[in-house]
Amino acid sequence: MSQGALAKRQFGHRARLVLSPAEVPVAEAQAHAARTMWNLLHAWWQMMPKDKRTLAQADDAVRQARKDLDFLAVLPAQAAQAVLKTYVQAWKNCWQGRADAPNFKGRFRSFMSVDIPQGRDLNIKRVHRRWGMVNLPRIGRIRFRWTKDLPIGKHASTENRISGARLIKNALGWHIAFRVTTLEPKPEPHRGGEVGIDVGVTVPLAVKSARGTVEEPARNVAQKAGLNRSIAAEAWGRTVTMLTYKTARYGGSLVKVPGPGTSQRCSACGVTTAGSRESQAVFVCKNPDCGWSGNADHNAARNILHLYRIGLVAFPAAGRAVVRRARRVKPPTVR
Ligand SMILES: [Zn+2]
Question: Is the pTM of this model over 0.85?
Answer without folding.
Answer: no
